[in-house]
Structures are given as structure tokens and as C-alpha cells.
Design brief:
The complex is a heterodimer of chains A (452) and B (335).
Chain A lengths: L2 E4 L9 E7 L6 E2 L4 E6 L4 E5 L4 E6 L8 E2 L3 E6 L50 E5 H15 L3 E5 L15 H9 E3 L4 H13 L3 E5 L10 H9 L1 H4 L9 E5 L15 H5 L5 E3 L4 H13 L4 E5 L7 E5 L12 E4 L4 E5 L2 H15 L4 E5 L2 E3 L3 H11 L2 E4 L8 H13 L8 E3 L10 H7 L3 H11 L1
Helix pairs in contact in A: 1-7, 3-4, 8-12, 9-10
Chain B lengths: L18 H26 L14 H8 L7 E4 L4 H6 L4 H8 L23 E4 L5 H15 L6 E6 L6 H12 L4 E7 L2 E2 L2 E2 H4 L16 E5 L3 H16 L5 E6 L17 H11 L1 H11 L4 H24 L17
Parallel strand pairs in B: 1-2, 1-3, 3-4, 4-8, 7-8
Antiparallel strand pairs in B: 5-6
Helix pairs in contact in B: 1-2, 1-10, 1-11, 2-8, 4-11, 5-6
The chains are: A alpha/beta (452), B alpha/beta (335).
Chain lengths: 452, 335
């Protein structure tokens, strides 16, 4: 049967081209792969190859023709001994291929609806508590999950024999052995890729970065390999993995070791991003992160590691990812923070209380998914919003929260929301300058004073 | 000292593939070639958009490697991945339908040419960032070892990727932890438009694992038997728990890097000469004829392959596009 050879598109943008010359003439036999013609595209001259066996029955577009539209029949390929049917021999463009996505009106222009819900949905009571440090809480969470599931293992720099650069993994090597607690060479890109590869098979690695700053060496695997594979595979291949480590400014460690990655990772669909403040947050959320079938970024804070909080002792204690916690009830203003900034906000609330202002303090716990319901519920009560974070203000978490509150509760606001954030400079080293760069409780107090 | 100290003799003295295996190889290589030619055609018709990296010329590599593997062994590669998928036994319909972005594609149209996966066939993608699949590949090997199986992982990458830093991090990690990973460099001589001579100070890529004690061999990647013999040896080494192994397959891609590559960096005579003298499919065809297989039998295989490709193409052209609701699914696993 005669088939038409069509003018090919050799780049995504090509609409037409010049048929420079024919390398075969009518009557020539061709096989797949034979170069039959040269065409000039918008980029360069390229070759057209035959894709079927046959004989060039008729050339429809003579060489030298310019502006030949893509998909125009340029020749007729016949089988040996066959004549060219009359109907096939016209050089009009074939029906363009339908390959664009179906036209649907984008829904993303309107904000997703926030269900009306009471703010005061209290957290489950886990009973008896004890005072533990965030450091111990993190270690206990990993140990509990490693006992529970053989597929969970920990890898990172100095996590095994050294017992953790910040002593988070203390005792884990002794209990779980070197098969499940693995020291890595200083090669974040390589070992993160390795861990992601293992997770694609269903294992559940915990990758400890000595600090999240070093995760930038591995950010391609975190985003391109871990976060996107589920989608790219049409839901076939998930990546159950936790990336954890201290995030944000520590103390006097300079610009390259003092940065918050909250907004970096929260930007990415396919990731969950968690940022605990208290020991209970650390324990409950890390257990949830390890059990989560998705890649989870777990942002710790070095300054908080040694701080003690009361934490439930119940062996089943776990917290849901995506649910914020109201740490302090108030009616006059909503303060929203995460990680160490929750402490800053609470300190500010104490100062404000002395002035007779009752601030509500929300501990986000999770940056993605963001519990906008709780924030909006609170703003509808207080009508005023201040966000607090140590990261930079530009395109930060505060910016996102403020935008979402405007989308969902604009009419409830009595004053423009305010962002309190780290100063927009690389972190300086000098003690006085470093202090000037980071949000202090009185910054929050001053921000609130402008609103009430 | 590792046994990569000398270039292999191409495995010609090895008993190699049986006639039945050679027939199988001929079939699979021809399937890849015809499939890729059809993909190129569909691209020209506007049915495939974006990037499309064809495997034509390199067929002996994946087919020779695949014939050395057993059930459970894992494969991972770059964006030039159609050959690996077909060799691994993935359905040509599902692959072609993914190329055309249809709901019936392996990734429901959400991956495209560069991003397909199959748990069933142990194919772990389809990765678009040059070199990333190597670190992921040692992760697959890590999982094999962690689970206590004797399965191996094959991490394919090009000679262009072989200069990436994470490849060397992966060599170190794999050697350090004795991970059962065969690194297969498909040296097709050009990383996009840059020849290997202009990109790599190391001229003997098969020796690139030497600092880590990783044995390496250079193989004629246009000879499916030679590829198979070398891979069997590498795989046996990995299964025995000795650590990773490196194979450099000397091969050639006939087509451009992707569809919109004018190929000005090489002379047409270079392509023609390799096509005429070293074509991997001609090679296996001649081996089969020399072994006494009748021409008619090969013709039958050709006809069968053509029908399979025509069917895949028809399927890919007529399948529906993904439902708009697919836009929002598979971002996260709902717990």
C-alpha cells in the first residue's frame, strides 16, 4: 500500500522548512534509515530518513522548495511494482496532529476553599509526660521507628561511630548495628542519591545532613529524584525517605552555616516539610515523617537541641503532619512561627501581656502542607497577623502565610499583616551583628504595637 | 590488582550466546531499532513533543546486558531510555503511548520519553539529570545488599555523564560498601555535540574506577555476544559480593543527541562508515546466518517486529489523552 512521506518537524518550534535536496529519485528503492532528503529547519540543515521499505513512487515537492509546511506530503512511498494512486498524490498539508493538552479552564486562579472549622479542636491527650531535650526526643523517635520497621535505617556523616555530630544518633549504632546505622563519607550528592535509590525500592532511609546547609550539595536528588518520581511514574514509584538535620542560624558560625531552608523546600510539590519546635513536636513529628510514604524534609534547630520540654511518655505517641498547634490562646493578635521562632513569639506574647495585649501564638509544626485552616480561624478571631521566622523575608514563609490569609480572610483583617524575619543579608559573624540580624521578641512586640 | 588492567579480547573465545539466544537478541535489537525509527517518525508528525532521544545504533548494549541478568536484577538509566525499557520486556504499546503523552502510557502521560518506570520489570527510570542515575543506581544495589539478596543493579550512563562528580562519589561509595552494581558506560562518543576527546581527560574510561579498585573492561558495544560475555562476568563478580564492576561499551548513536540536533559536529561519512561496517544488527544477523539459520526465519522475525511496532504506534496514536483530573494526582502518596 502506498504511504505518504510527510514533511517532518525536527524541532518543537518548527512550523515549516525548505526542502533543500532529494538524495533519492523516483523509482529508487529505500530501506529504513536511508537518507532520502535534506531539509533546512529554523536551526540548521538536517536529514530525512526513510522509515519503511519501499520505492519512491512520486516526489511531490521538488527540491529547492521553501516554506514547506510540516506534515505536508513530500513524496509517495510505494511497494515494489505498485503504481501511485491518484488520490494520494497531492501536496496539501495533512490534518495537524492533535497533541496539545485538552483545553480546560485553569482552576488555580481562585484560592482553594478553606472549610469553616472551629479553631479550638484540641490535641489528643497523651497522658503522662516527662522532661526531655529535643536531642533525646529525636533519638528516641528514630529508635522507636527502627525497632518497629526493619526497612528503616539511618545514614549520614558521623552518625554511627562518632554518635552524631550533634549527638542526635547517640546509642543507635550499639542497638541497631552497622547495617542500619551507616557512616557516610563527606559526599552529600552521592550518598543522598544512593539513599533515594534505595527508597525507590521501598526501603525507608533517614538521611542526616550534618546541617541542612550541606543539603544544597544534594538538592538535585531531593527535588528531581525524590520529590518528582511519584508524579513522573504516574503513581507507580514513591519515595519514602526523611531528610533531617539542623536548619537555620546556629550561633556564630557565619554565613555559609546559617540559613533557613524552610521556604526553599516548602516551594516544592511532592515534598512534605516539617519544622518542630518542642521535644514533643520533635518526637511525634519525626515518627510521623519516618512512617510517611513520601519524602519529608525535617528541619531541626541546633539551638533547640539541648532545650528541655515536657513530652508524652506513651510508646505510641505520634503527631500528624500538616496540623499546627495553638501554643497560647489570645484574642488581640495572631503570631505565627515555626521552629525556634515559636519561642520568640511566645516571649513576645509574655511582653505583650504586660501591656494588656493578648496574643495567640501558633506553632506551625508543618510548612508543607500548611495548616492554613488554623491560621485563618485564629485571624478571624483576632483580626491581626504577625508572622515570625529567622529566614529571609523575600519569598519567605511569612510572605506565603500573609498571602493565604489575604485570600481567605481579607475582610476580617483590621490592619495590614506584618512579617518579622531575619534581616536580608548573609549572616555576619560578629556577635553584635548576628544578634541584629535575627528576630528578637521586642521586634515582634514593636510590630504588634503598630497593629493595635 | 584488579583484572581491569588489560583491554578485553571482546569475548570472542567465550562460548557466548547460543543460537536461540542470538535469535532472541536479533529480535529485541530489531524491535528497538524499528520502534525508535517509528518514534522518530511520530516526532516528525508532531505526535511526540519535547525531547526524544533515540537509541538507534546502540541496540547491542542493552540487549547483551539484559541476556546476562536474572529476575529481580534492577536497571536504571538516563533519558536515552527506550532501548532499556524494551529490552527489559516492557510493553511497546505502553512505552509508545507515553511518548505521545497518552493516558495508556507507563506514566499515564505524566512522564514522557525521559521518565518511565516499571516495578514489575525492575526498571527504575528514565532520569533526565545527567549522572543522577548513577547515584540512584548504587542505591538500588544498596537495597539488594540490605535485603540480603544476590540481585545486582545495572547503572547505565553515557561517556558524557562519566565526568560528573557524583559518578565518582558513587564509585567510592559502591566500592567502600561492596555494593553489587555494574556501572555500564555507553560510550557513543558524543555528549550531545562534544566528542569524548574534547570532554574527558581520561582516555580509557574503563579504567576510571581504578583508584577505588573497581575492575573495568572495554567492550565492543556493537557486538551483542561480546557485551553479553563481559556482562556475565561482571554480574557474577557482583553476585559473589566482591563489589562493583565497570564496563565501557564502545558504541555509536546514528541519530542526533535528540530530535533537534543538526549533527554538525561529525561528518556524515563517519556515521555511514560505522553503519556499514559495525552495525550491531547486521552483526548478529551475520552470526545467525553463519550458524545456519535460514534467511526466511529472520524475515519472519522482521515481519513480526514490524507488526508489533505498527500496533504500538496505532495504540499510541489512538489512545486518549490523560483526563484533566490527572494533573492533580500522584503528587503525594495519600497515607
Amino acid at each position: 500500500m502506498a504511504v505518504q512521506i510527510l514533511m517532518p518537524a525536527l524541532s518543537p518550534t518548527m512550523t515549516d522548512g525548505k526542502l533543500v535536496r532529494w538524495l533519492k529519485k523516483e523509482g529508487d528503492a529505500v530501506s529504513p534509515g536511508d537518507v532520502i532528503a535534506e531539509i533546512e529547519t529554523d536551526k540548521a540543515t538536517m536529514e530525512v530518513e526513510a522509515v519503511d521499505d519501499g520505492v519512491i513512487g512520486k516526489i511531490l515537492v521538488p527540491e529547492g522548495t521553501e516554506n514547506v509546511t510540516v506534515n505536508t506530503p513530500i513524496a509517495i512511498l510505494t511497494e515494489e511494482g505498485e503504481t501511485v494512486p491518484e488520490t494520494a498524490a497531492s501536496a496539501t498539508p495533512a490534518e495537524p496532529a492533535k497533541s496539545g493538552p485538552a483545553k480546560v479552564a485553569p482552576e488555580a486562579t481562585t484560592a482553594p476553599a478553606v472549610p469553616e472549622k472551629s479553631v479550638s479542636e484540641s490535641e489528643k491527650d497523651w497522658g503522662e509526660t516527662e522532661e526531655v531535650t529535643v536531642r533525646e526526643a529525636l533519638r528516641d523517635a528514630m529508635a522507636l521507628e527502627m525497632r518497629r520497621d526493619q526497612d528503616v535505617f539511618l545514614l549520614g556523616e558521623e552518625v554511627a561511630q562518632y554518635q552524631g555530630a550533634y549527638k542526635i544518633s547517640q546509642g543507635l549504632l550499639d542497638e541497631f548495628g552497622e547495617k542500619r546505622v551507616l557512616d557516610m563519607p563527606i559526599t552529600e550528592h552521592g550518598f543522598t542519591g544512593m539513599a533515594v535509590g534505595a527508597a525507590l525500592t521501598g526501603l525507608k532511609p533517614i538521611v542526616e545532613f550534618m546541617t541542612m546547609n550541606f543539603s544544597m550539595q544534594a538538592i538535585d536528588h531531593i527535588i528531581n529524584s525524590a520529590a518528582k518520581t511519584l508524579y513522573m511514574s504516574g503513581g507507580q514509584m514513591g519515595c519514602p525517605i526523611v531528610f533531617r538535620g539542623p536548619n537555620g542560624p546556629a550561633a556564630r558560625v557565619g554565613a555559609q552555616h546559617s540559613q533557613c531552608y524552610g521556604s526553599w523546600y516548602a516551594h516544592v510539590p511532592g515534598l512534605k516539610v516539617v519544622a518542630p519546635w518542642s521535644a514533643a513536636d520533635a518526637k511525634g513529628l519525626l515518627r510521623a515523617a519516618i512512617r510517611d510514604p513520601n519524602p519529608v524534609i525535617f528541619l531541626e534547630n541546633e539551638i533547640l537541641y539541648g532545650q528541655k520540654f515536657s513530652c508524652p511518655v506513651d510508646d505510641d505517641f505520634i503527631l500528624p503532619i500538616g496540623k499546627a498547634k495553638i501554643e497560647r490562646q489570645g484574642e488581640d493578635v495572631t503570631l505565627v512561627g515555626f521552629s525556634i521562632s515559636v519561642g520568640t513569639a511566645l516571649a513576645a506574647a509574655d511582653l505583650l501581656a504586660e501591656e494588656g495585649i493578648n496574643a495567640e501564638v501558633i506553632n506551625l509544626r508543618s510548612l508543607r502542607p500548611l495548616d492554613i485552616e488554623t491560621i485563618v480561624g485564629s485571624v478571624k478571631k483576632t483580626s491581626r497577623l504577625v508572622t515570625v521566622e529567622e529566614g529571609w523575608p523575600f519569598a519567605g514563609i511569612g510572605a506565603e502565610i500573609v498571602m493565604q490569609v489575604i485570600e481567605h480572610a481579607f475582610d476580617w483583617l483590621d490592619a495590614p499583616p506584618v512579617r518579622v524575619a531575619g534581616i536580608d543579608v548573609p549572616m555576619p559573624f560578629a556577635a553584635n551583628l548576628e544578634k541584629l540580624a535575627l528576630p528578637q521578641p521586642d521586634w515582634v512586640v514593636n510590630a504588634v504595637r503598630k497593629l493595635v | 590488582m584488579n583484572d581491569g588492567a588489560s583491554v578485553t579480547d571482546k569475548g570472542r573465545n567465550d562460548p557466548g550466546l547460543s543460537t536461540a539466544e542470538l535469535e532472541h537478541a536479533f529480535h529485541d535489537m530489531l524491535l528497538i531499532r524499528r520502534f525508535e525509527e517509528k518514534a522518530g517518525q511520530l516526532y516528525g508528525m508532531g505526535l511526540i513533543g519535547g525531547f526524544c532521544h533515540l537509541y538507534i545504533g546502540q541496540e547491542a548494549v542493552v540487549v547483551g546486558v539484559q541476556l546476562a541478568l536474572k529476575q529481580g536484577d534492577k536497571i536504571i538509566t538516563s533519558y536515552r531510555d527506550h532501548g532499556q525499557m524494551l529490552a527489559a520486556g516492557m510493553d511497546p504499546r505502553g512505552v509508545m503511548a507515553e511518548l505521545t503523552g497518552r493516558a495508556t502510557g507507563y506514566s499515564h502521560g505524566k512522564g514522557g520519553s525521559m521518565h518511565m518506570f516499571s516495578r514489575e520489570k525492575n526498571f527504575y527510570g528514565g532520569h533526565g539529570i545527567v549522572g543522577a542515575q548513577v547515584a540512584l543506581g548504587i542505591g538500588l544495589a544498596f537495597a539488594n545488599k540490605y535485603r540480603g539478596t544476590d540481585e545486582v543493579s545495572i547503572a547505565y550512563f553515557g561517556e558524557g555523564a562519566s565526568n560528573q562528580g557524583q559518578v565518582y562519589e558513587s564509585f567510592n561509595l559502591a566500592a567502600l560498601h561492596k555494593l553489587p552494581c555494574v556501572f555500564v558506560i555507553e560510550n557513543n562518543r558524543y555528549g550531545m555535540g562534544t566528542s569524548v576527546e574534547r570532554a574527558s581527560a581520561s582516555k580509557e574510561l574503563w579504567r576510571n574506577g581504578e583508584p577505588w579498585g573497581i575492575p573495568g573492561k572495554q567492550i565492543d558495544g556493537m557486538d551483542v555476544s561480546a557485551v553479553n560475555t563481559a556482562t556475565k562476568e561482571a554480574v557474577a563478580y557482583c553476585r559473589a559480593g566482591k563489589g562493583p564492576y565497570l564496563l565501557e561499551m564502545s558504541t555509536y548513536r546514528y541519530r542526533g543527541h535528540s530530535m533537534s540536533d543538526p549533527a554538525k559536529y561529525r561528518a556524515r561519512t563517519e556515521v555511514d562508515e560505522i553503519r556499514q561496517k559495525r552495525d550491531p544488527i547486521d552483526h548478529v544477523r551475520n552470526e545467525l546466518l553463519a550458524a545456519g539459520i535460514e534467511e526466511e526465519k529472520l524475515k519472519k522475525i522482521e515481519t513480526d517486529v514490524k507488526a508489533v511496532v505498527a500496533d504500538a504506534s496505532q495504540f499510541a496514536e489512538t489512545s486518549p489523552e490523560p483526563d484533566p483530573s490527572e494533573l492533580y494526582t500522584d503528587v503525594l502518596v495519600e497515607a
